[in-house]
Description:
By secondary structure, this protein is mainly α. The chain has one domain (1-41). It is built from one helix and no strands.
Amino acid sequence: MQKDILYLLLMSINVIVFMQVILLIELYLKFNFQINWYFLA
């Protein structure tokens, strides 16, 4: 029983971390795109 709870906790932490990483990548790409666009314009 304890192992199942621990497993679920780890899974939820992984999902949160994964979502945060995706968000950071999106922000980074958006920021880079804006800078490139600014220099090209």
